[in-house]
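Hey team,

Filing this mostly as a record. A colleague (T.K.) asked me to run one chain through the structure pipeline before their review meeting, and I want the input and output archived in the tracker in case anyone asks later how it was produced. No errors, nothing strange. Just documentation.

Input sequence:
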Amino acid sequence: MSFAPPTPSYSLENVVERICTFRQITPLDRHLLNHILSNRSYFGRREQTLVDRVFDGIHEGHIWIMDN
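Output structure:
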């Protein structure tokens, strides 16, 4: 049985802003992103732009992925 920490109600905008401000994705950030994105069946242009911002930052080396 795995334990998932409770997920506070953060918006996609809040999580992306946090990631871009600290220039890293922590395990908590990954958990929040997964939770937010898996509960949506449709992504508007604004949401896609936010996700692209994170992806581009990772791809260009501006955002680091932290393990633990």
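Quick notes for T.K.: The radius of gyration is 12 Å. Strands lie at 24-25, 64-65.
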